[in-house]
Design brief:
The complex is a heterodimer of chains A (about 300) and B (about 475). Chain A is mostly helical. Chain A is built from twelve helices and two strands. Chain A has a two-stranded antiparallel sheet. Chain B is built from 18 helices and 13 strands. The chains are: A mainly alpha (about 300), B alpha/beta (about 475). The interface between A and B is medium-sized, with 31 and 34 residues.
């Protein structure tokens, strides 16, 4: 730390302004949110302190909450499952495609499109055939009539349809990260391995995978934490409906706070979400660090 | 690139970025218009100008010449609707007569505006003039003293007497009126006469069973029987409440629940749920109704794909402006299992204009609102939107070129002998949400009506005193 020959006090003084802003913008609202979770407040008028009632009702008496938690976690797991696939494609692009960068840029385009556009686009694709829905029309055209569904209106099916759209959008994002990681592995190592007889996918097993673990960890954490909080895609496509069939924590929290005007209860849900994110971040970091140690 | 060029480029980019930041800042101020705090004039001179200018309705005023900016949050985003044109006409006229007053519009669609207003209420930054729904929906705002009483606005220029009798009650609390309505509508079933003929239906149904038979006939011809935009859950609720109005043999069910005389598990309610389910299961609504919003739903009807459209009479203007205008007529909702009076309708007192209590220009806002509401019925009449006006207006409809549809709707209006207002205007938001979600669920799966009734009762009891 003292390479710069500067006292710790000076360092502290220079860090302080940004630190204060960070605390005020990030930590204080979280703490206020925890406090609001103990209130019964309709957002406009007076609030009433009710202690842990909101949390108690949330965890034990709410029929919508735990399915929503289940769906949120399912969403997170689904987004993680995509990453090994992205790694595979990145390796292929790096090895067999000349100008892999162009393809990666093309795959990246959905990421930069607005979520609203993607949501509306896929909503139209999922529409029933009578309203011009591409998916159902394609299925009937090939003769697979029996496979057509009301994709976004069937309670059991809708959430998976939304997962798919989100995976589609972020495929390019994780692909880019993995691709950069794969490209950064020095090619001398591969040449050395070739001399020893390890070629193609065998080389991958012993070289690429261990060396890409840090990048892999970045992707996993980003995907997991990002999807835990996802709101916009689901809101655009189904609004958490029909009924509560596609509600995740973020949409449920929004509905409770703004539609039902129960800000205290909504804050309790938000607090739970914060704790959930923290717990999983620590867990994932611990697991990935252990894998990191094993391979380095 | 050498370091000097690099440095120059860095400075240039930083300069360009900060310039655009400044430009963003000022243009946001001009275009957002959501906060009443953004107006520029000092509040000290507001009372002075209020006392100086008390003009008659359309005469230019002798203002002190101080610039005042009023923010008017409204729910008419579609330039093709008559109310949009009326609003802009009246505002333009007022701004011409009062050159020192600019009225900045914050235009959103209904649900977005409700949400935005709630967020603004949270931070007490309600726009000078905003819009709220009657009764239970505006009660939280009134209880938190966010609106000013508009009794003096009503007393000026005889505005109070122009309103239909009893209408202002929906906007009054503790003897004060807090909002002035923009409409008074009833719920009817619009239908496409041509499509009915195609399916071999000779006359509109007068009983619920006839309605179900008609639905079957239309479906057999591949026509969507009834269009709905159930992503906006209030649409399904509106239809449901009409069924309840019949099975309860009259209005007042929800009021009875609030007064403790009935519960949601009363047979009238359970039967209404059951019949609503029958309608859905008979395939009356289009596929995927729960992901279709209200505007898309309306276009299903106005493009001739659906035979019926059950909504409030505020739709008359848009339907008249659509390609199928000449083929449309309307009928009142049928009786259900022999119960209910066909001349009782679901009433929909319109959204009301209210003035924020912490506005910096209350006097100017009141003056504008008085002018606006006095001229509203006349300009609406000229714009062919006299159906569903909250105020009485004189005028020969036929001579003014109103369509047959509009005249027949006005005819239905004259038959109204009573009715009820919607669920979310009677119950508090938490119970209303449970109701809306429960109904939306019925569109995608079969449910046990008794179970739905129980869920309503549970939600009601859990949220009763909020």
């Amino acid at each position: 730390m003292n390479v710069l020959k500067v006292s710790k006090f000076t360092i502290g003084v220079f860090v302080l302004p940004a630190l204060i802003i960070y605390i005020c913008i990030v930590f204080v609202p979280i703490l206020v949110s925890f406090y609001t979770g103990t209130l019964d407040w309709n957002g406009i008028g007076e609030s009433k302190f009710v202690g842990f009632d909101n949390f108690h009702n949330l965890l034990f008496h709410d029929k919508v909450f735990w399915p929503a938690v289940r769906r949120t976690l399912l969403y997170a797991v689904a987004s993680m499952i995509e990453i090994p696939f992205c790694l595979f494609v990145a390796v292929l692009l790096n090895r067999y495609v000349r100008k892999g960068n162009t393809l990666v840029s093309i795959y990246f385009t959905p990421v930069i499109l607005s979520v609203v556009i993607i949501g509306q686009l896929w909503k139209t694709i999922y529409n029933p055939a009578s309203l011009g829905g591409m998916l159902n029309q394609a299925l009937t055209w090939v003769g697979l009539d029996s496979w057509t569904h009301s994709w976004l209106s069937e309670p059991k099916l809708a959430i998976y349809c939304i997962f798919f759209v989100s995976l589609w959008q972020y495929f390019g994002y994780h692909l880019l990260i993995q691709f950069t990681g794969v490209q950064n592995i020095p090619s001398e190592i591969y040449e050395a391995a070739k001399i020893d007889g390890a070629d193609g996918f065998k080389a991958d097993r012993y070289i690429t995978f261990p060396m890409i673990v840090p990048i892999f960890k970045i992707s996993i954490v980003l995907a997991f934490i990002g999807s835990l909080q996802s709101f916009d895609m689901i809101w655009i496509m189904t609004g958490g409906g029909p009924g509560n069939a596609t509600d995740v924590l973020a949409t449920y929290m929004y509905k409770t706070s703004f539609n039902s005007q129960q800000f205290g209860y909504g804050s309790a849900i938000a607090s739970f979400l914060v704790v959930l994110c923290l717990v999983f971040t620590v867990a994932i970091n611990a697991v990935m660090n252990r894998i990191d140690k094993r391979f380095s | 690139m050498d370091t000097k060029a690099k440095k120059a480029l860095a400075v240039a980019v930083a300069g360009a970025l900060s310039l655009s930041l400044a430009a963003c800042g000022s243009s946001n101020n001009n275009n957002s218009g959501g906060d009443s705090g953004s107006s520029s004039s000092p509040s000290a001179s507001a009372p002075a100008s209020g006392a100086a200018s008390s003009p008659t309705a359309s005469a230019p005023s002798a203002d002190s010449g101080k610039k005042v900016k009023l923010t008017f949050q409204n729910i008419y985003p579609d330039p093709n609707t008559p109310t949009y044109k009326t609003l802009h006409q009246i505002i333009d006229q007022y701004e011409n007569d009062h050159p020192n007053i600019t009225i900045e519009l914050d235009t959103l669609n209904t649900d977005q505006q409700k949400l935005k207003l709630k967020t603004q209420a949270n931070s007490k930054e309600i726009p000078d003039i905003t819009m709220v729904n009657p009764a239970a929906q505006m009660k939280p705002f009134v209880d938190a003293n966010l609106f000013v009483p508009l009794n003096d606005v009503l007393d000026k220029n005889g505005l109070r007497d122009t309103y239909q009798s009893g209408l202002l009650d929906y906007y009054s609390f503790n003897g004060n009126v807090y909002a002035l309505p923009d409409g008074n509508n009833i719920e009817v079933v619009y239908y496409n006469k041509d499509l009915f003929q195609q399916a071999g239906i000779s006359a509109p149904p007068t009983t619920f069973d006839e309605l179900l038979a008609d639905v079957k006939a239309l479906k057999a011809k591949g026509i969507i029987p009834m269009a709905i935009g159930e992503k906006d859950t209030w649409t399904g609720s509106f239809i449901f409440m009409n069924i309840l109005l019949r099975t309860n043999n009259g209005p007042g069910f929800l009021q009875d629940v609030v007064d403790g005389k009935k519960t949601f598990e009363d047979p009238a309610f359970v039967e209404a749920v059951e019949r609503f389910q029958d309608l859905i299961q008979a395939g009356a609504f289009e596929d995927g109704a729960t992901s279709i919003d209200v505007d898309t739903g309306r276009s299903l009807f106005t493009s001739g794909k659906a035979a019926m459209y059950m909504l409030g009479t505020w739709e008359t203007g848009s339907i008249d402006a659509s390609p199928i205008a000449s083929k449309v007529s309307a009928f009142p909702f049928p009786t259900v299992d022999g119960k209910g009076d066909i001349n009782q309708f679901m009433l929909a007192p319109g959204t009301g204009y209210a003035i924020a209590a912490n506005s910096e220009h209350i006097e100017e806002a009141k003056d504008f609102l008085n002018y606006y509401c006095l001229n509203f019925p006349k300009v609406q009449f000229e714009n062919k939107n006299a159906v569903g006006l909250p105020q009485k207006v004189d005028g020969d409809l036929k001579a003014a070129g109103y369509s047959d549809l509009a005249i027949s709707i006005m005819d239905l209006f004259s038959k109204v002998s009573g009715g009820d207002i919607s669920f979310d205007n009677t119950m508090n938001p938490a119970v209303a949400q449970a109701h809306l979600t429960g109904l939306q669920n019925m569109f995608v799966q079969k449910v046990d009506p008794a179970q739905v009734a129980k869920e309503h009762q549970t939600a009601y009891e859990a949220n009763k005193d909020k």
